[in-house]
Amino acid sequence: MKRFTGALFPLVLLAALAGLTFWLAKAVELPPLDSGGRFRHDPDYEVSNFTVRKSDETGTLRYTLTAKTLVHYPDTEGSDVQQPKVVFLKPGQPPVSLGADWAKLNSDASVVKLYRNVTLIRAATADRETLVGTAPDLTILPDAETAHTDSPVQLVQGQSWLKGKGLDVDNATMTYTLRSRVTGEFQPHKH
Fold first, then answer.
1. GO molecular-function annotation terms (predicted)?
2. Phi and psi at residue 128, in whole multiples of 5°?
3. Is 120 exposed, middle or buried (CB count within 10 Å of its CB: 0-12, 13-18, 19+)?
């Protein structure tokens, strides 16, 4: 009996090692690759020449977003947009349009990041000339009616101009705040 027990121990040890090896192989096995493209940065749809309109609770149009193309990516739920233009519309105020060569939108378009050749144009009024701003990038929060950048900015209105680093735009109050390193030249207003 002693001899049988001594021969059984190596077999039990070998079976335990085989079971442990099998368990370890399954534990470190990689999941199968998703062939549907959900985790790849491949577009799942494209839209051309589109317009999105946002109204307030009373039905008054607040802003529009137009663009040449939109390409959506399911892995990030974001979109790349060519030639975007956002126009804020406020009763009794001049329209303010913001555009660029391209943009990135988050999943619900609550954040629009403009890149390359960014322009900000506030239309002229009876007593003010058109205001034109330029920057390399600008982040817009359309629902809050605000925009900002940390980059260099230039604002021109008629013969007057300002340059600075960083800009905060509040369309609700129609204010444009340059953050730092501001230089400029103001010309007298002509009646």
1. glycolipid transfer activity; lipopolysaccharide transmembrane transporter activity
2. -135, 140
3. buried
